[in-house]
Amino acid sequence: MGKHRPTSACFLPHQLRENHPHLPGDHRRRHTAPIISSPQLVPGSQGRGQAAKVEARQPRSRPGSQGRGQAAKVEARQPRSRPGSQGRGQAAKVEARQPRSRPGSQGRGQAAKVEARQQVYADRNHTTEGTLYCGCTWQWTGKSGGRVDLASCGYTPRKNANRAARIEWEHIVPAWTFGHQRQCWQNGGRKNCVANDPVFGVMESDLHNLAPSVGEVNGDRSNFNYGMVQKNQPLQYGQCPTRTDFKARTTEPRDEAKGLVARVTFYMADRYGLTLSKGQQQILMAWDHQHPVSAWEIERDRRITKVMGHQNPYVTGEKKWKLGQKPSRDGLRGIPASAPILAKATTGINPAESAAVQIIGNRNSHVYHLPHGCPSYGRVAKHNRVLFSTEADALAAGYRKAGNCRQ
Prior knowledge:
By secondary structure, the protein is α+β, with helices and mostly antiparallel strands. It has helices at about 5-10, 15-20, 25-35, 50-55, 70-75, 90-95, 110-120, 160-165, 175-180, 185, 190-195, 200-205, 215-220, 255-270, 280-290, 295-310, 315, 390-395; strands spanning about 135-140, 145-150, 165-170, 210-215, 225, 245, 250, 360, 365-370, 385-390, 400. The chain has a 4-stranded mixed β-sheet with strand order 10-8-9-11. Strands 5-7-6 form a 3-stranded mixed β-sheet.
């Protein structure tokens, strides 16, 4: 081999080549132009030709960074974003997983629970009335939660000790109950109602309908109606007197809560146009009579009124529920009616049991039948029945009157 290889000199950085003692001058001149136009590379990088092409398209990196060729490949795969922000691709994936809803629709129910703690029950966790169903005391935790003192009420977990130890906010009239009387629930369940029905949002966050409960009892009550349980059924939660008959889907609260839950149920049915069967009305009317308004119930109503701006008239004595009473629907005024209110769309309900239920719709044909003048009124199969309070409600839900109706 020759002593001075041109190819070796071509791989020297420009500054070293200019001062190289062994290179002839004409060789230096011949390679000066192309080498000056090439970018400076970190020693140990890949071939200069490829690196130069890559670097020409990329910003220079700090000394000590990874090889430019690899860096270029990595950067080419990453979306460009503002300093400190995550890549747009990842952000898009995260956003795509989030449900879209109207501004303010999310978190309304949770916000109501926080407000109930702060404005209504903040100082009631160590009082004699205790939790709704068992009378237990508790310690507040977080924004709206709590840890139940089970010994304070002689509570023994039935099955779920973890849930028994925490406070949950009971909807006295369950969200399932008033949700099933909204068209939004028929079209997508609770998520759809929360996102798209402002009336459901108002009902779900009504403070009159919220009360702290032992979590396990709240879960066992589920969406069952209140009613009488067989007297020979043993207690299920130690000394807590509330009992649930799972087969009959009925919960009987302790005596100290019966009057309160009756008056709250009347309030919700009256204010939001909910339906109650004749049997439900009779039981709750008896409880309202047997268990008069307590001093705490009056104070509770006063505190809620201060937040919501209206009282429960069945607590203040302004109203007394009557069998077959038609609801005032005062709570629906001024709320955009994006979803019509329906009567309870479940099987086994005789429309004659409630004066508020007058019209039967067929969920398959979307035809409704009036109680008078429509010969097919009683012929709709129970599992296909959707009950409406008025023709306007039926029409708003997209139903049409049956062709054989004489009216």
